Amino acid sequence: LNPNVNAFQRRFVGEVRRCEEMEKTFTFLQQELRDAGRALGPCPDNPRAPLAREALRVQEQSEQLAQELREVSRNRASLRGRLRELRQYLHVLREGQRFTSLPAPLGSPPRPRALSEREPVLDPSLHQHLDRKINFVAGVIHPWRVSAFERLLWRACRGYLVASFVEMPEPMEDPATGESITWVIFLISYWGEQIGQKIRKISDCFHCHTYPYPESEASRADTMSGLHSQIQDLSVVLEETEQYLAQVLDKVVLALPAWRVQVQKMKAIYLILNQCSFDVTEKCLIAEVWCPVQDLAQVQDALRQGSYKSGSSVECFVQRIPTSESPPTLIRTNKFTAGFQSIVDAYGVASYQEVNPAPYAIITFPFIFAIMFGDVGHGLLMFLFALWMVLYENSPSLRQTSNEVWLTFFEGRYLILLMGAFSIYTGFIYNECFSKATVIFPSAWSVATMANHSSWSAAYLATHPSLTLDPNVTGVFQGPYPFGIDPIWSLATNHLNFLNSFKMKMSVVLGIVHMGFGVLLGIFNHVHFQQWHRLVLELLPEMVFLLALFGYLVFLIFYKWVKFSAADSMVAPSILIHFIDMFLFTSNADNLPLYRGQVPVQTVLVVLALASVPVLLLGTPLYLCCRRRAPRTGRPAPAAVGDQEPLLEGQEAGNSVNTTKEDMESGGHSRDAEHLDFAEIFMHQAIHTIEYCLGCVSNTASYLRLWALSLAHARES
């Protein structure tokens, strides 16, 4: 009600910003829980929105917990890093001890080692005046950088060094990525200060962790002993830090779910209050809302309780205001219908007081799925899985999960239950259980009768791997199977051809019946809104177009099935050729007619279908145009009060408190007066006509997917 006020200048912007700051704090707390491997469950109860004093307490406690977590996490990371460095240093000294303390060979005279004493490195006879002290650079390096590091050392130092590489005995965490890797320990011995500087620079470039390497063996032993004591002390401190962190996280797990719900409610309240307008005294908020009529008592009671709890001296009140705007659509659902309503809403929400197709989709959607998934075994598995979810739907372990795939299955458990039940039914019709035929009733085909009539000999059977059962022979075919398809068809070589014809015709028939039912639902809308012209100018042409073309196709399917039997099946004409000739206004001498006068009847039907298109295209626009141009007499009819009423808090009956002149000029349209311009009306009707006519053709072809996917399911199984 205050669209002219800047979003940053509204009354409760500060409160909304405070709620957002608390949500940022909650996000940090939840991230810390996730990093610790803990899951945050849903709120066990439904807390109310906090008062101002309670909100301050929640903000203070959440920020205190966040500050503690930051400090503890920072200390833990520092202790882990220090402990990791000490362990790496200890491993470097241990592995370096193996290189620098090699025992002398047996029988060789003892001599001072060149690694820690001054001695001629080169042959004294060649360089008697050249003495060098051997130095060391020790550390660890990432295993991926060892090869490049070794090559660069060799090229930069020209071979004046001795480098040794060995893997660390235990893997350690990489501080950059957090992954556990096996570091490589290196020990480089060199002589010359310039070469040492090059080695250190190269080590820094490769992000190596270098450590001081004592020259004497005694110094190395003392250093290792000191490292052992430091590691033990740090381990104890780190364990205590982990325990304290676990205690803080326990507090977060207990308090955070309720805090999030409370702050979300508080933020939602302030966002709504920011959309309200003030009266002239700027002490009373005014709001206009849509509310279902049956919920008016609850709204009034909630406002009364709010006034009492807030200590306001003026009580809130609700008053209806007249309006000509179309109310929003409210469709009440329960746990059973919610899944089906979500599927329908994905394609579009019905307008106010229109027929909701979701109740019909409760049957049609699972049944159409079952046509493609018809199998007793597979349907039973799906039914039992959904039944388990339904029986244990109140279990917290099923509801409290973060797996989106599982939540999708769980929310559609009733949908899956019906799909499984219908799949069992269609599986009995197809006579398939895990793609195997079941013999519930004895077969209606008699092989013995055919064998006695044909006098099949052993030589004939040896040369003919496939035998034909002729239904025209008396006793071979004893009548239709009691329910579904005869199991003997699973042994036939023409099994696929038979199922192709059966499922293709079944898909077309069910698809056209489904489309016709959807068109007939429009009768309820036209009658309810008293749009009698749409019954004649829209519904009637739509049904004529659908039935004259595709309804006639269904008639041909059933007529051919009834008229022709096994005796004269060889001369039965092709329905497909007749349907093609129908649009071409021709006849085929090779394809016999199904009945007398078929060509004139088909011609009339095509002409009727074509004539219904301009009626559908121009009927409604011309009628609305003529009705507007006709002089109006009498007073206008009052606006109908539907299932939902606009409410006003603290306002007299009449127009909206914030209605402008432009709103009054552009608002208040009736259902038939949505498009004021004839061009817009005609464009809207043209789109509807093209969509309907093309949709009849494309949707009929789309229903053939039932046939294709049913065969694919049977083949893959």
TrEMBL record:
Keywords for this protein: Coiled coil, Hydrogen ion transport, Ion transport, Membrane, Transmembrane, Transmembrane helix, Transport
Transmembrane segments: 367-392, 412-430, 508-527, 539-559, 571-589, 601-625
Chain residue ranges for the region called Disordered: 650-670
Membrane topology: Multi-pass membrane protein
Biased composition range(s): Basic and acidic residues: 660-670
Compartments it resides in: Membrane
Coiled coil residues, start to end: 19-89
GO cellular component: plasma membrane; vacuolar proton-transporting V-type ATPase, V0 domain
Family under the similarity heading: Belongs to the V-ATPase 116 kDa subunit family.
Function: Essential component of the vacuolar proton pump (V-ATPase), a multimeric enzyme that catalyzes the translocation of protons across the membranes. Required for assembly and activity of the V-ATPase.
Protein's UniProt name: V-type proton ATPase subunit a
Species of origin: Steatornis caripensis (Oilbird)
GN (gene name): Tcirg1
